[in-house]
Specification:
429 residues, alpha+beta, Adenine-n6-DNA-methyltransferase TaqI, Chain A, domain 2, 2 domains, 4-stranded antiparallel sheet, elongated
């Protein structure tokens, strides 16, 4: 990525090879693996997710020879230099080594390099600076007969950028960006917690239902209990006596989507266009109005989407839509979300669902007032998740702007150096 060569006052232009050592990972044999955690923790490509994510489930253990320079510690910078999938989405994205505990030896495979800065460079600053550079663009093309992509290690040391001469300035820039990252991480944890709560609550509410009570508030509820309430056997297992089991085709027509010509798309249109994976654009015309459900037909068949009341929509021909006539649309949405639609896949190639299979899906159907109460509880959790996701998106926008300003020297932080006060609200930075 070309960069403006104008250097801010008090900064200097450097090459990565001048300020750091690029350490290659271990060339290993399969016999070097061991099952015991007493071996060294071994980071390989299976541990690295797209665009810099980390997956501890991919860890192996290693009993081979390790050089001191190949030992990894918390916060070290590593970069994948190979991608066996041919997608290239893990190559060149800097990643910081997570905390494995002070007593654990951690190392890396030959598919990974460590970037070890010298004493003039703050390691956290260098991590963020490398995130700003488009290292990913220097992937070597797949040669004839090859099955993998590689990062050009001859080029990597030549990567050029500007850094502050002052270590305290580097540290303060990194500290500000880490504050935002910590807020993003905490928000992610909250989102995941809400999702776990929702999944457990769906399982309970959609099998046991809510006991009637005039004393319970909006977010308070009591699940039916077979010791106190009547249940019956059904094709779906034990369900409350008042509930029915019906086929999805009995609550409304399963309608095919229709192709939409490109000239009918409109960026500012008030019609949402859905495909099998969700919203794909906006349009001038509309097929129908919500409430309705988008049900996948071909391709990604895992997700169902809810269309709000009165919302204009168009469903293209990779999906179906359903407008329930007998039942509350939001309740049926949550019921389908609680099912694994992939079990209905009948294709050996591109996953596909047939209209007949969808129509025959059996669902529980409580009395309408109870459907509303169940859907209301689950909707409140969805609203909480959406609120946190919007906050995370805001934090990510803030981080992007800060990285472009701070790491390029457009905004200076010298006046903040020496202050230990943490940033209470990152959006005010």
């Amino acid at each position: 990525m070309a960069e403006d060569v104008k250097v801010p006052e008090g900064w200097r232009r450097v090459r990565l090879g001048e300020i750091s050592e690029i350490v290659k990972g271990i060339t290993y044999k399969s016999s070097d693996y061991c099952e015991s955690e007493e071996g060294a923790t071994f980071i390989n490509l299976k541990c690295i997710l797209k665009k810099g994510g980390f997956n501890k489930d991919g860890l192996k253990y290693f009993k081979g020879l390790i050089r001191e320079s190949q030992i990894l510690r918390k916060g070290d910078i590593i970069i994948a230099i190979v991608d066996l999938t041919r997608d290239g989405d893990i190559i060149g994205y800097p990643l910081r080594v997570p905390d494995f505990g002070s007593n654990k030896v951690v190392t890396m495979s030959m598919d990974v390099v460590k970037i070890e800065p010298d004493a003039q460079i703050d390691k956290a600053f260098l991590y963020y600076r490398l995130c700003l550079n488009d290292i990913h663009s220097y992937i070597l093309s797949i040669s004839a007969g090859s099955t993998v992509l590689h990062l050009d290690l001859n080029w990597l040391p030549q990567l050029e950028f500007s850094v502050p001469l002052s270590l305290p300035e580097q540290h303060k820039i990194a500290e500000i960006l880490e504050t935002v990252d910590n807020a993003i991480e905490k928000t992610d944890a909250i989102i995941e917690k809400y999702k776990r709560i929702k999944q457990g609550l769906m399982q309970d509410l959609l099998t046991r239902g809510i006991a009637e009570s005039d004393e319970l508030g909006v977010m308070s509820y009591e699940l039916r209990d077979e010791k106190k309430h009547r249940f019956k056997d059904s094709p779906l297992g034990r369900i409350p006596e008042e509930w029915e089991v019906v086929e999805l085709g009995c609550v409304g027509d399963i309608i095919y989507g229709e192709g939409l010509r490109q000239e009918l798309y409109e960026p500012d249109g008030d019609t949402l266009v859905f495909g099998t994976g969700g919203i794909i654009g906006r349009a001038k015309l509309f097929l129908d109005r919500g409430p309705a459900l988008v049900i996948p037909r071909k391709g990604s068949i895992t997700s169902v989407f809810y269309i709000q009341e009165d919302q204009k929509f168009w469903i293209i021909d990779t999906a179906f839509y359903l407008k329930p006539q007998n039942g509350y649309c939001k309740f049926i949405y949550f019921t389908l979300c609680n099912m694994d639609l992939e079990l209905l896949n009948e294709a050996t190639g591109v996953p596909s669902l047939s209209r007949e299979n969808i129509k025959s899906i059996q669902i529980p159907l409580p009395p309408l007032p109870e459907q509303h109460r169940i859907a209301s509880l689950l909707s409140q959790i969805d609203e909480a998740i959406e609120k946190e996701q919007k906050y995370k998106e805001k934090l990510e926008r803030i981080k992007k702007g800060l990285m472009e300003d701070l790491l390029m020297g457009k905004v200076r932080v010298n006046h903040l150096i020496g202050e230990n006060k943490s940033l209470e609200r990152v959006e005010n930075v």
